[in-house]
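Workshop exercise sheet. Pairs work together: one partner reads the sequence aloud, the other fills in the structure field after running the prediction. Swap roles for the next sheet.
Pair: D.N. / O.F.
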Amino acid sequence: MIPERLRPLLETDSVPAQLGARFADAGHSLYLVGGSVRDALLARRIEDLDFATDARPPDIKSIVGDWADDLFLMGEAFGTIGVVRRGHTYEI
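Structure field:
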């Protein structure tokens, strides 16, 4: 059962749903993690979205490359890719 407060994050056209479909199509898992989950459960404004995945950085870049407006690769050595789309940055 998904808590009602989390449902907006999982709507068909939401960023988590779009990214989740892309990762699933590529054979990887993607999990919404961190403060956005906490804020949704507490009915707070959600400021940013962070994700965890079993995909490695080269896979992440391949999966989101044509979806993203830009990528931040500063954290790539640590397994993190920053994805920019429509003015928002998402950490994967």
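Discussion prompt: The first strand starts at residue 30 and ends at 33. What would you look at next?
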